[in-house]
Amino acid sequence: MPRQHEPDLIPMQHPPLQAWPALEKQQQRCCEHCHKKRKRDKYLVIALVLFLLYLLGNVVFLNVRTLNATQSTSPPAARASPSASSSTALSVDAEQCISQYNLNAPTDPQDYPCSTCYPVLSAVPANFSDGDAQDAQTVANAVQFCGLRSMFESANNAGQSALSNGGWVKDVRFCTWSGVKCDGSGRVSSLQLSFPSVPANVPSEIGGLTGLTSLQIVGDTNVPGGTLPSSFTNLTSLTSLDLQSTAVTAIDANLFSSLNQITTLTLVKNTKMGGDLPSSLFALPLQNLVVNDQSVSSDTLSNIVSSNSLQGSLKLLDLSATSLSGAIPASISAFTALTELHLDGNVLANPLPVSFPTTLQALTLTNNTGLSGAVASGTAFCGLARLTSCDVRGTGLTAQGACGVCTFS
């Protein structure tokens, strides 16, 4: 039996295997993934740190505000005494006030606690030094800021609006506020306020402006009113004081014992001030004295003329429209520096002085109907060689002969 033929066996064919990716490429992808993760983690850490710093800042701010509220409501006995300040150390209260002025006042000037900090910082000695000049400057700045802000707060709505338009209390850079001028040391040296930008009353905090040399306040005859505060005597650097159209009442008789640097005093239309000028005024070496449109006592001119201090210093005397009565004192000729004399609009009477100060360059006696008679050439004011202006219209005076530049009716 023939042998059957076995079929040929065909070997199995396996599908081709794909090549494995190179090991270094796998490692590269892994490294890139790790690098991105580390970078993301780094940003998360930075964001977390910034968030924590933000929270910390808010906690500090809230602590300062809470401390301020606690100080404002705590009784005076519980607070550190301002007398603890010395030339080398600050009280705790003073340090806190300095910190608040530096941190909070620049962004929220109206919220700075002047009612608490002004008395504390104004009690810091002028010779204070803790080795940090910035602290001493901050004390001075905060006191002046509060002194000026008190003027703003004392004003009525119209006054505050006008002051605000001039930059007041919008920041702590008070040297840029309207009407305020500072010297090279950052001290307020000049303050000029005109209605409606005036306080209703002159606040006691004005005494913090110890560098003030010139002060002018022009009201509307109703404001500012009241009395000048006792702290006004702190303004010992004042050389010029000008009060016009105010309702300020009588000035303390001894005021100018403290303000003894004043050389110019101007009082115009302060109808509630009374007729008596402060007695301490007559001891000053004034150069300019102007009192207009407000009544003075009948002995005012005599008090001025009899002042030895004024006889040698006074250059300008203007007592126009002050209801002066009586005769011009003969001793007026003793004034050795007087260049201008204005006594118009009064009720002066005869006789005229035989001679006037030889230094006179301007003289007005207009509208004194009680003055009459002939003035002979070379006598009284007709004998003044330096006169460049002379007006006696509205009187009964006449010239007997030449009378220089004088104008009669």
Give me the oligomer status: single chain
The helix-and-strand class reads alpha/beta
Straight-line N-to-C gap: 180 Å
What is the element string, with H for helices and E for strands? HHHHHEEEEEEHEEHHEEEEEEEEE
| Poorly predicted sequence stretches spanning 5 or more consecutive residues | 64-86
The overall pLDDT, averaged over residues, is 87
- In order across it, which strands form the biggest sheet? 1-2-3-5-7-8-9-11-13-15-17
Write down the overall geometry: elongated
Number of strands: 17
Main β-sheet description:
11 strands, mixed
> What is the CA-based Rg, rounded?
40 Å
Percent of sequence in beta strands:
15-25%
Helix content: 25-40%
Q: Give me the number of helical elements.
A: 8
What does this structure look like?
Helices cover 29% and strands 15% of the residues. The strands form 4 sheets. Strands 1-2-3-5-7-8-9-11-13-15-17 form an 11-stranded mixed β-sheet, with no helix packed on it. The protein is elongated. It has helices at 23-73, 92-103, 114-122, 133-154, 157-165, 255-258, 300-305, 308-313, and strands spanning 180-182, 188-194, 214-218, 225-226, 240-244, 247-248, 264-268, 288-292, 316-318, 325-326, 340-342, 347-348, 362-364, 372-376, 389-391, 396-400, 406-407. Strand 1 (180-182) and strand 2 (188-194) form a beta hairpin. By secondary structure, the chain is an alpha/beta fold.
